[in-house]
Amino acid sequence: MKWIRSFLVALLSLIPGLALRLSAQDIEAAAPAAGFTESNAASSRVSPSSATSKGCNTANGTRFNLEPLLNAQPQQNESVAFLLDRVSPGVDLVVGAANESAVQSRFLPGANNGVVFDAFYAHRTGANCNPDFEGTTRFSTTNPKVVADSARDAFFLAADVITGAAVELVTRTPAATLLSSSACPNGTQQLTSSANATCWPVEGAAFFNPSPATNEVLLGASLAVDPRTSGTGEGDVYVAAQLENTGGTLATSTIQVIACTNQALSCGTSVIASGADTFAARPWMQVRADGVLTISYWTFANPASDQPPNAIDIKFTSCTPRGAPQAPACSPPQVVASTTLLAAWDPGDNDFSDSLFPKHSDRREADGSFTTFLVYDRCRSIHPPQLLARLPLLADTVCTKVDLVLTQSTNGGATWSTPELVESAVGHQFFGTIAVDASTGTTNITYYSTQNDPFLQRAQLFLSQIPAGSTTPNPAVALTAASTDPNVGIQNLVMQNGVNVDVGDYIGLAVAGTGTKGQSKVYVHYTWNNVFGISNGTEQPDPNNTLVPFSY
Amino acid sequence: MRIVRVGVCTAWVVFSLGMRLDATPILGCGAALGTKFNLEPAANAVPQQLEAVDFIPNRVALHEDLVVGGAFDSRGVTFAPAGATTPHWDASVGGYYVRRSSTAGCAPQFEGGLPAVMAGGKAFTSNGGVAVAADPARDAFFVADLRFSASNAGWSGIGLFRASSATLLNTALCPKGTHTAAQAKSCWTATPPAMIDPIPSGGNFNVLDYPSIAVDERANGSGTGAGDVYLAFNGSDGQGGVVVNLVSCSDGLSCSAPRVISASGENVAFNGTQDAYVQVRPDGNVTVTYLDQTSPNENSPTEIIKFVICQPRGAPRAPVCSRPTVVATERQTISTSQLNQALSSENFFAFTNVRHAHRLEGDGKTVTTFVVWDRCAEYFTFLSNPNRNQPALCLNADVVMRTSTNGGQTWSATTAVNTDPGHQFFPSISTDDSTGIVNIVYYDTEQDFLHKRMVVALNQIAAGTTEVGAPLPLTTTPIPWDADPNQTALPVDDFDFHFGMKARGMGMPGFSRIYVSFTSTADREGIYNGQSLPEQNNNLQEVLY
């Protein structure tokens, strides 16, 4: 029969129109439409059975929590810190922190229906990236963040206290304690009355307002430690927070800083770092190698207006240490850059909110001067609000293209360069963050990018580095071969406010090295949905805090 | 040349039959995605959704079908500015798209918004819900849609248009390109459109739902009702309840008054997507399926799938209908439990939807009825449902089926069409009367590793059997529903995401077609403020088998 088929095909091919039609179909069947091919090789799901990594997963990163997969709930808003080679040569002591947003939390004893909003996760064994133990703070807090203090061989964990008070909980633990399996046993530490007493033995509280007004709330504190071993302020721990008061016609907000002692976490009173700005938001704080605090944030240029477009200034200030618990002395803020667009938007066709959150890092140059690099997510243009019928009230503001941009200052923030793109590719680059490797002078910038997804939705994690002495980022490398979709999973869990997917506001980045090429390490702690949880017997994408390392 | 083509095709048919060649489907509009089936420019493009499609095979030429699609087209959400000379839609979101030549592949030659209909001195514009039915025997197409009064808020009705194939092929009456309102009127009103309103003269009856349409395709004179057109739609009974209406119209659009065919005491589902669905059997009997949600507040996942069969009396006389019978009591329906939440990982509304089709068996008398619907295999129950009045979020949606061979008196057990991992939903079904092959299409997320992006899948049921064949992909690139900047965070038309499908053939392998019109986000990107972003389009796929 085969020859008959061949004959027929040959016969049909003599008919011009039909031949053309068959040919076109064959071609179409063989080749997906241009511009919309999807690389499944770069889009891999991690089955629950392989959720624990034997090494560090280079496709997706490694899930950095010990949550059971059954009824798994989201983690987001990550932070990370580590001490290089602290466990053993080649094995770092890594501590992560993230929001948990979990009811019936695994941190609560028994069948408790309570909610835990924050957690820490620690890796101390082996060359993999798995956490060995995890726990939560003693109080109801959120947005936990962690920093390492290599000079004093310790870690600090801080989080925003939720209930009423404008206070930041700050805790401290020596590295030796984290390495102690008796003080910090493996597994999930249950929240009991003695929780953290052994694993995070020192507790302090940074009271931004001992008598907070009814409508005052602390938002998104930033944590930093003075890495020095000498000088005024050496080893001091700083908390910078946004204090917002919504009691008036227009909300007011300031950025305030508190200094705490290193060993006892004795915290002083706060000082305003945002000058005369009446609405300042999203503080990001670092301590330079000379002990000077540097703080970036954004503020409305016209705080008396609540009508968009209300121009936004990104600002920067520096504060001179005076020795904790004395508050530092802050200089007047300077404008880094301005935008007339909004402070939050949905990246293109993605159903989650990306908000303006500038972050910076300071690099000490060979001559002792400092270069400050600042990155922020910048929207090129806002798609007009949805005036289409049936959806106007709930439609979100869409940014047609989100860029990650970089600017730098070499004079302590007095002037700044014109912001330049970190990545010129298509898609959206967002949640950018930055950290300088003091040992090499290499500046590391990491971010999500949807550039390789034909639909510009699924993101990979990228890293771009600025070599020492340079101010130009090198081409970025993908830290994850796979991509993830922020907008998947169980809506009851990932759409916390009922409309937008809640993937957090930021990701964590830490970097350290010995100064020798090949011995520096980057850890990125981020949200990733490719490990599936199991709900009612059905596998579903589950947002997890995830860790990926990079050596250079 | 045409003689040569016919000869070769005849030879092909003879050889095919002799060799018992398998009718392996061939995708004619691009295997990856199908083809965008509208002419909208890329700049500030808006979504097209809720598709319908039908066609007359070989109407243009051999292997050249005349294809008419419909969709909710967001270009029509605003009136054209005064004095505008460019094509506009005059507030009609009822889009039509016609392919009358394959020279441009599967793209349409013209499109537009269905014109306004005057009734009771008022203009009624399309509010979407376009349904399309072809009538090969009389060489015409019928299009129905939901109509709202442009001047009196809350006044609504069902519009019904007829256009002959000759008109649609006439480049003077239906010029190529995007039609102006005048061109839309020229193309669709040679037969004066009908305005169907349960309360005559444009009464205040503002809760009608999208219509479905079917034609008795039997030849003239072959039986009572041949050539009649039927519309089914849900609507308020004026007393706080919802009923299912059936209307019969003649080929010339002389229509009966709406007749309520649901039973008193039922709580007919009325949430935008659970439309009544009408079909005509090969013997001329008219059938309707719909959902009885069992309580007025839809506070239970249980809904009863109802079936009504009616005997034609010749339009505009209304048919005589049976009392509703129960196809199935579905205890795990899909429902939108909270804003945006129906299926996990998907941000659109979804409700269990029922479609059916008929097949005349080899004895020439028995008619097998196939009813398909989507259901939830597994709910999310770990957290309490924030809206306790409705079913929970569905973690795994499936498409299932029942059959009847005695006019709906009894039904088979429920069987799977596709119960694979991921979501299978929004089924459509159509019988290729020429071969007896039943075709079922639906969205399927199994192929996406995150079970979010969807392809269109097809299952076929061979003639003489009720066994469902293996799924076949009609598109191979999984596409996300939410990749359109105009619908973040909500879909533009946040309900009723059915899509269109029709199968017809010539009775021989290789000469049957299925046309599927569905929502895609992949053919081309829109341009917004100079930036390229994916955007939604009504796409077309042609399946040859």
Describe what you observe in this structure.
The complex is a heterodimer of chains A (552) and B (545). The radius of gyration of chain A is 25 Å and the shape is globular. Chain A has a five-stranded mixed beta sheet with strand order 2-3-4-5-9, with no helix packed on it. Chain A starts with a helix and ends with a strand. Chain A has 552 residues and is mainly beta. Chain A has four helices and 36 strands. By secondary structure, chain B is mostly beta strands. In chain B, the strands form eight sheets. In chain B, strands 7, 8, 9, 10, 11 and 13 form a six-stranded antiparallel beta sheet that branches. In chain B, strands 1, 2, 31, 32 and 35 form a five-stranded antiparallel beta sheet that branches. In chain B, strands 3-4-5-6-12 form a five-stranded mixed beta sheet. In chain B, a hairpin with a 4-residue loop joins strand 9 and strand 10. The N terminus of chain B is likely disordered. The chains are: A mainly beta (552), B mainly beta (545). At the A-B interface, helix 1, helix 2, strand 24, helix 4 and strand 35 of A face helix 1, strand 1, strand 24 and strand 34 of B.
Termini separation of chain B comes to 24 Å
User: How would you sum up the major sheet of chain A?
Assistant: 5 strands, mixed
Secondary-structure class of chain B: mainly beta
Termini separation of chain A: 63 Å
Q: Please give the share of residues in helix of chain B.
A: under 10%
> Per DSSP, what share of the residues of chain A sits in E-state strands of 2 or more residues?
35-45%
Q: How many E strands of chain B? A: 35
Oligomer: heterodimer
Low-confidence spans of chain B: 1-22, 488-494
What is the count of helical runs of chain A?
Answer: 4
Instruction: Give me the number of helical elements of chain B.
Output: 3
What radius of gyration of chain A results from the CA coordinates?
Answer: 25 Å
Which word captures the global form of chain B? globular
Q: Which range does the strand content of chain B fall in? A: 35-45%
Residue-averaged pLDDT of chain A: 86
- Biggest sheet architecture of chain B: 6 strands, antiparallel
